[in-house]
Design brief:
single chain; 510 residues; mainly beta; 12-stranded antiparallel beta sheet; 4-stranded mixed beta sheet; 2 helices; 26 strands; flat; disordered C terminus
Length: 510
């Protein structure tokens, strides 16, 4: 049995040139499943060869499965007034969809209701960005106004106003669900008038809670210059140009908290957030054609531009490393050291972080410099050191194995796990740090040789291992905007320095 109740409460705050619409949508879900079973048995007693019924036992079992969910979602959106042309286009689109529906065509429909409890962080954020919002006027103060009449019915007019506008898209919500299942057993002995009760857990009791708030807010203040030519007055018919210029402030960000509890296990929680703030100058120029007190109007955009002057935080909301964790013993080492080569350059692939863009919501992957990471090892014999200038083209990080005499080391192979932890960016936080576990391997076995793969600019791509006499068959690397033309082979002059080499055409044979 399932009961679902969904409500919608809409509050509209009117402003000059638009409104701010607040929508609250609570959803309540209750599921209940009952299974009833009964059985009985005779309780026998005996003495010697004589048996008799001493009692009758009857038992009823009731399985109760419950699921409760509460979703509370709220949106705050600024909506501007639409001109006549836009209203007509919207009406034509609606009529077209209705005609397509009558003909049985797929119309795409309106924006579907979204079950936010099933969405990931990025999906939640994208659903917020998909909300339609406009600039809404908060405050207006006239600075200057002048008029000039020609032929008694033609008026030239110029007004200059100070205007403050707001553009807001914001969502807030709570998702809570609770799951439990128990078996209740009731028994009775008819002759002895005795009852028994027992309770069993069919599934572990568990609940999940998620709270979130995310939004994109814009605020701009400046002057609005409106030169126009009117017939009699601006209320009858007017043609003009509206130019707005001034300063703007934009904020993009989110805050998310999640809690999970399961009976018999440790309660876990995570909180994260990111904010990007930008300040700059803007200019908007549009035409203004209206008549009959604005009942018929058209305001096509002619020119728009924004020039950022200052920003804080990052537009890249980072959620994970692009490379997968090496947790199992069978994972291929990412870092490989051989014989006396006790230090090696870390590949660029471990520097790539993935997430999404706060301004667009799209997937985004970037490679960050080494000063953005903390590096640790589960074996203290491994360390790292850096060369070059952080942020430069040759900023490089090395892994070093500290052995005094590798040839007489009592361990022919050494494995450890290196952990990279992203330090985070300004105006962002996470209680669970973004980490990557990388397997590091060293050996002094005479079973082959390593191949270090470098780009033509000196970047370290990675490594591969080959047996002596085995065909190379190297993989083809991919890089956006580049065409791979082939490999050039070299032999290392110094085994501990992969940038010290001489030309060679064939692979080693011994």
């Amino acid at each position: 049995m399932r009961l679902e109740l969904q409500l919608e409460v809409i509050k509209e705050v009117k402003k000059d040139g638009g409104s701010i619409v607040i929508t609250v949508t609570p959803t309540f879900i209750q599921e209940l499943k009952l299974d009833l079973s009964t059985h009985g048995k005779l309780v026998w007693k005996h003495k010697f060869i004589f048996y008799w019924i001493s009692d009758v036992y009857l038992e009823a079992g009731l399985n109760v499965y419950t699921y409760t969910a509460i979703n509370l979602d709220a949106t705050v959106v600024s909506q501007g007034e639409k001109d006549t042309v836009t209203k007509v286009k919207d009406l034509v689109n609606k009529l077209g969809k209705k005609l397509d529906a009558l003909e049985g065509k797929d119309t795409g429909g309106e924006r579907e209701e979204i079950d936010t409890s099933k969405l990931s962080l990025q999906e939640l954020y994208n659903s917020m960005l998909e909300l339609d919002s406009d600039w809404v006027e908060l405050y207006r103060k006239q600075i200057f106004r002048t008029k000039k009449t020609v032929a008694k019915i033609i008026k030239f007019e110029l007004t200059v106003d100070f205007v403050v506008e707001l553009n807001i898209r914001m969502t807030m919500g709570m998702n809570f669900n609770y799951t439990n299942a128990k078996r209740y057993v009731f028994g009775v002995y008819l002759f002895k008038h005795r009852t028994t009760t027992r309770t069993y857990n069919l599934v572990n009791e568990q609940y999940n809670l998620r709270l979130y708030a995310m939004g994109a807010v814009g605020l701009r203040a400046g002057v609005e210059i409106w030169p126009s030519v009117s017939l009699i007055s601006r209320k009858v018919a007017t043609v003009g140009i509206v130019a707005k210029l001034g300063a703007y402030l934009k904020d993009y960000g989110y805050v998310l908290y999640a809690l999970h509890y399961e009976e018999g296990k440790r309660k876990t929680s995570n909180a994260s957030g990111a904010l990007y703030v930008e300040v700059g100058m803007f200019m908007d120029i549009s035409a203004n054609l209206s008549a009959f007190k604005g009942k018929v109007s058209w305001t096509p955009e002619i020119y728009t531009d924004e020039t950022p002057l200052w920003s804080a935080g990052s537009t890249h909301a980072i959620t994970a490393f692009e490379m997968k964790n090496a947790d199992g013993e069978e994972d291929t080492p990412t870092v490989y050291l051989k014989n006396g080569g006790l230090d090696v350059l870390l590949p660029q692939s471990v520097q790539a972080l993935t997430g999404f863009d706060l301004t667009t919501g799209k997937d985004r992957t970037e490679t960050y410099d080494w000063n953005k990471f903390d590096i640790s090892f589960d074996d203290p014999r491994f360390t790292t050191y850096h060369t070059g200038v952080y942020g430069g083209n040759y900023s490089q990080q090395y892994v070093k194995l500290n052995l005094s005499d590798w040839q007489h080391c009592n361990e022919p192979e050494i494995d450890c796990v290196m952990t990279l932890t992203y330090k985070g960016s300004d105006l962002s936080f996470s209680t669970n740090p973004v980490q990557l576990k990388v397997k590091v391997h060293w050996d002094r076995l005479r079973d082959g040789y390593p191949i270090h793969e470098l780009s033509s600019t000196g970047g370290y791509i990675g490594w591969e291992q080959r047996k002596f006499g085995e065909a190379l068959n190297l993989k083809t690397p991919a890089r956006t905007g580049y065409t791979f033309e082939g490999w050039t082979y070299y032999l290392l002059e110094n085994e501990s320095d992969i940038f010290s080499y001489k030309g060679h055409e064939k692979q080693p044979t011994e």
